[in-house]
Amino acid sequence: MKQITPEFFATARGLSRAQGESLARMISLIMPDAAVFTVDQHKKISYWSPGAEKLLGFGEAELKGESCLTANRCVQCMRGCGLIDSGKVEAAPLLLHRNDGRTQAVLKYAMAYVSEDGGFDGGLEVLIPQRALAATDLPLQQLSEKYGLISHSPEMLKVLEMIRRVAATDIPVLIRGASGTGKELVAKAIHGESARSHAPFVAINCATLNAGVLESELFGHVKGAFSGAVRDHAGLFERAHGGTLFLDEIAELPFELQAKLLRVLETGEYLPVGAERPLQTDVRIVTATHKALREEVKAGRFRQDLLFRLRVIPIFLPDLQARKQDIPLIVRQLLKQQFTQGALPQVTESAMQQLLAYDWPGNVRELRNAVHYALVMSDGHYIQVADLPPEIQTSVAATQDTAKSPRQALSAHIIEAEITACAGNLTLAAKRLGVGRTTLWRYRKQSAIKA
Ligand SMILES: Nc1ncnc2c1ncn2[C@@H]1O[C@H](COP(=O)(O)OP(=O)(O)OP(=O)(O)O)[C@@H](O)[C@H]1O
């Protein structure tokens, strides 16, 4: 039989099965909205409270004697919940799948029963529903415009859908994507659509400060904590209280601070530098990285337990290179931001071809910079190949821009992207492109004949 770790046995002194079973019934009376259940030494369900039935939609009759994984359907549960290894689980955030397919955010607490010979003898588990918030019902198109996350690509539409879902919970989110793919925009959208939107969104890049300064920035310090600490300093956890703390480049968080962050996630408590008593915080943590954190764990640079805490919901942002159909749309959006009045400059077909051929290692940030550069260089009416930054001019052998008619300024790519954006509504697409409907129809016909 698997042995419980001596540390747990020493601290918890163990809960016997008989004690646990009556405790479970008591907790389910006191906390009728929580799911309370017990498992035997084989992790088969032995008690399932009415609250559990209400929360997850499974009845006791169908679950008794079944593996706990039948009712606790989630990625972390499949990996192992830690109950056998550490004897207890404290405030683990989970996203469970209910019997009816909907998801339910919970915080899980569990305590193992210890047999007389010190072995695992089952356990008592309590799942506390996380704040029941309605997912935002903002249509994806409006969500994308509200936060400037412009895209048509299926991958980005999935990201927008994820934002809508996770905003309704307090579950930690890890955003993975290369530099300039929009990680901070996604974090802001999650915050902005959540019930925390009235409280601050605070962001910090963990790669830019050394361990000492970062600790003081995150957790604050008290007067006299170190030379130069002439007054108390509120940390970001205090400033973000009630809101969202966005930790960018989380892979760079120094190892010694990883344990402190883990403590906040587990207990909501942290210790300002030099302080004697911990403070409580209520923040939602959203993290981002361009690195594979699993590799960082393997290399011994990142704590596995912290990874599991942070990566409850991962969101992946694709490189711009993998969604080039977004380029005309984003360019247009960037031009609109610069020109609030008057006609937008037209991007010539050759210039658009160069933009589409380029690899964009700096992703949308680089595209934004290129558009700003081109605007400075252009005559204000047309953006041509010669107006683009040099590295983009040479992305493919550019053809010379000789024509300057509006039709030639509109490439087939732009036309088709706009029509898709308008869900096939040619009148709207023509309006957004600044041409008449008949003209748009003629352009399309001519492009089709040329093809
Ligand atoms: N889909 C998009 N549509 C329009 N603009 C975007 C989009 N994605 C990113 N941007 C713009 O690109 C720039 C970089 O975005 P952001 O700072 O969110 O990227 P990031 O992934 O957090 O970058 P880094 O990792 O370097 O901090 C910002 O100006 C942002 O407004």
Explain this structure to me?
This protein has 451 residues and is α/β, with parallel strands linked by helices. It folds into three domains: 6-129, 2-Layer Sandwich (Beta-Lactamase); 140-316, Rossmann fold; 321-450, Helicase, Ruva Protein, domain 3, CATH 1.10.8.60. 42% of the residues lie in helices and 16% in strands. The strands form four sheets. Strands 2-1-5-4-3 form a five-stranded antiparallel beta sheet. Strand 3 and strand 4 (103-114) form a beta hairpin. It starts with 5 loop residues before the first helix and ends with a helix. Mean pLDDT is 84; it is low at 397-409.
What is the annotated CATH architecture of the largest domain? 3-Layer(aba) Sandwich
The class by helix and strand makeup works out as: alpha/beta
Strand coverage percent:
15-25%
Distance between the termini: 71 Å
How many domains make up the coordinates? 3
Evaluate the radius of gyration. 27 Å
